[in-house]
Every structure is written in structure tokens, then in C-alpha cells.
Design goal:
two-stranded antiparallel sheet; single chain; mainly alpha
Length: about 375
């Protein structure tokens, strides 16, 4: 009898939480005054006309955003991609204007309202609701693990690829992380299974249920509290997100169960050390990472740190084997969606663990691979 009473109690709690989250999102979806929307937008990254994302090509001759970049780095380019300018949809036909931000008409037009499919770099096409499809179209990454597969065909695992270079997923690919294997964005090893879309909880499962579409900030409750605090009682602000844990597992095996963010950091550190050991011991050239393009550099003095002198484009790491190329891609994938631990932490961990296992075939690695989620 007590067992049934407890189950009924749990169902009531779930019902109340679902109703609460629905109420929050229903409140947010109500029409806002244009002035309030404009204020939010002006303060967002989408409106920052001085941002590198919109000015990177200012000094080029001619000063324009290349077709390859225009979809996401020019509002005009995105309108071209949608076909709102009368061109073919799902392609950019010409270079686009610099300093063209994501303005109202970029997302509020006939083609945008009908957008329901997102094409990912892996070749996957995923059906999404229009609001989420708009966000996901740009936050989908520039390359996927499939590009690594293509670049390494015909080479053995530890053979250095002539003229090899670092393949990176680019950055801010939140939707690709969120979809997991459905978007096939990471380098997914054959014979391994990967989680799909992170469902989270009812009412907080999509881009615009969690993020305000105009400010891009996390939504709040009707009382102004952080949305995540509805279920995660330890959350009062953004700084607390990193301490949220889902499974209570010490993935990095450091003796402390931490928030998903910190567990991913720990596992990534193990992978990085394994990459450095592999590059030095197997490929014969030390490697280091720096948050500066092209990210991976030759560590000339093998001190484990990329100095200012070493962080030159001419010193970019180029001794890539297929094994290093695929593990480096997943390493970068875990870094360049800063909120990957929220969007789909298990998918990120699976990619990291599998990359560590790959390297452990040829170099010593201290990692408990049985902890892979």
C-alpha cells in the first residue's frame, strides 16, 4: 500500500512540475511589446555589428563574406540561404555583405516561418519546428566527423597524411550537440552506440523553450527566477549550471562526483594528455592546443605549453595520422560548444571516451573506460 502511495505521490510531483514548466513557457510565448523585444535584441550577440563574427572579412579585398561562411555570418547571406531573395533555397549563391547582423527580417519572413528541415554537415537532414529550425540552421557546425572519414581514406591508423591539417567542427554548434547521433556531428566510431537527441524534461526540450529568442539568454520563471531552478534546486544563476549532475557518476575517476561540466573537463584532460603522448611517441612531433586558430601547434621544445612564439600560423601542427585526426576532432568538439554539458553531456562524454580508447591501443593511458556512459 505504501508503495502505491509513493508512486501516486511521484506522479503528482511530475504533473505539477510539468504544469509549472508549461506555464512558464506559455507566459514567455505571449506577445511582448516591440520596444521590449528591440531592447533585448540590441543587447544580444546577434545584433553586435562590431563582433568578429560579422567583421572578420572587413579588411579583405573585396570586403565581403565568402559563400562558404555567409549563411551564418551575414544576415543577408542567411536570407539568400532561405531563398527569401528569390534564389534557390538551402544554398548561398554569392558572397554576402559584411557587418550584416541577424536583424528582424532575417528570422521573420515567409521562408523562415516555413523552415522545418535542418541540413547538418554530416549529411543528416532533421525535421524540427520552425523556431528551432531557424536556430539550428546556423548552430549546426561547419564540419562533422564524416569529413575526417573522407580525409583519412586509404591511410593506415598511424600513417602520417601528406599535407594533413586539423579538421574542426568550427564553433557554437549547440543543435548538433543536442541531437547527438541523430545529427552525427562528432567522429562516431564504428561498433559503438551513441545517444541521440537529449530530451531533457517536458517544457525544456527545444532551443526556444530554454533560450529567449531575442536576448538569447536563458528564460526565467514568471517570478524572475532562473528557469533551471524549477527542477535543479541548487541553481540560482548561470554560474551554478556547471554544478548540475545527472547521473551521480565520477566519469573522470578523480574520486569526486562533480557537475557534468567538471566531469567532461576531467575526461577531456585525460584525452589531451593521451594526444600529446601519442604525437610525441608515435608521430615524433610534440603537439599543443591553444584557443587560437588554427588551435593545434607544434610544441617545439616539448614542454607541454604553447608559447607566444609557438602560437604562429606558420607553426600549425601538420603531422596528422588518421588516429590523431579523429581524436583531435572529438577533442575540439567537446570544447567549441561551451554549453555542451547542458545540450547533451552524455554524447560529448561518449566521444571523449571512445577517442581515449582509440589512443590507448598504442600509448599508455590512465583511464577507466568502463565508465563510458
Amino acid at each position: 500500500m505504501k508503495k502505491y502511495a509513493f508512486l501516486i505521490f511521484l506522479l503528482i510531483i511530475v504533473f505539477l512540475l510539468t504544469g509549472w514548466i508549461y506555464s512558464i513557457n506559455a507566459h514567455k510565448s505571449q506577445s511582448e511589446p516591440v520596444q521590449q523585444i528591440s531592447t533585448k535584441w540590441w543587447g544580444s550577440a546577434h545584433a553586435d555589428i562590431a563582433a568578429e563574427a560579422f567583421t572578420h572579412w572587413n579588411e579583405d579585398e573585396p570586403a565581403e563574406v565568402p559563400q562558404y561562411c555567409a549563411k551564418c555570418h551575414s544576415g543577408q547571406g542567411f536570407i539568400d540561404y532561405l531563398g527569401q531573395d528569390g534564389s534557390e533555397a538551402f544554398s548561398v549563391d554569392e558572397p554576402a555583405a559584411i557587418e550584416s547582423v541577424i536583424s528582424c527580417e532575417v528570422c521573420h519572413n515567409e521562408q523562415a516561418e516555413q523552415l522545418s528541415t535542418v541540413n547538418y554537415p554530416s549529411g543528416a537532414s532533421v525535421a524540427l519546428e520552425p523556431n528551432d529550425a531557424l536556430c539550428a540552421t546556423c548552430h549546426s557546425g561547419l564540419d562533422a566527423g564524416t569529413a575526417v572519414v573522407d580525409a583519412t581514406l586509404g591511410f593506415t591508423d598511424d600513417e602520417i597524411i601528406p599535407d594533413g591539417s586539423f579538421i574542426t567542427p568550427h564553433y557554437a554548434f549547440a543543435s548538433a550537440t543536442w541531437l547527438g547521433s541523430e545529427g552525427n556531428a562528432g567522429y562516431e566510431y564504428t561498433q559503438k552506440e551513441y545517444v541521440g537527441r537529449f530530451e531533457h524534461a517536458v517544457g525544456v526540450q527545444t532551443c526556444t523553450q530554454c533560450h529567449d529568442a531575442h536576448s538569447l539568454h536563458i528564460n526565467t520563471t514568471q517570478e524572475g527566477a532562473d528557469l533551471c531552478s524549477t527542477c535543479h534546486s541548487n541553481v540560482t544563476s548561470y554560474s551554478d549550471y556547471r554544478n548540475i549532475t545527472f547521473s551521480g557518476i565520477d566519469y573522470d575517476n578523480d574520486g569526486v562526483v562533480e557537475g557534468m561540466y567538471h566531469e567532461i573537463e576531467g575526461v577531456r584532460s585525460i584525452l589531451y594528455q593521451a594526444m600529446q603522448r601519442y604525437a610525441s611517441e608515435v608521430l615524433g612531433e610534440s603537439i599543443g592546443w591553444l584557443d587560437q586558430y588554427p588551435y593545434l601547434f607544434k610544441d617545439s621544445n616539448s614542454d607541454g605549453v604553447i608559447s607566444e612564439e609557438e602560437a604562429a600560423f606558420s607553426n600549425a601542427y601538420s603531422s596528422f595520422s588518421p588516429r590523431l585526426m579523429r581524436t583531435a576532432f572529438n577533442f575540439q568538439f567537446s570544447l567549441k560548444d561551451p554549453a555542451g554539458y547542458v545540450h547533451n553531456g552524455k554524447y560529448v562524454l561518449q566521444l571523449l571516451f571512445d577517442s581515449i580508447e582509440d589512443l590507448s591501443d598504442v600509448v599508455a593511458v590512465d583511464c577507466d573506460l568502463s565508465l563510458r556512459p
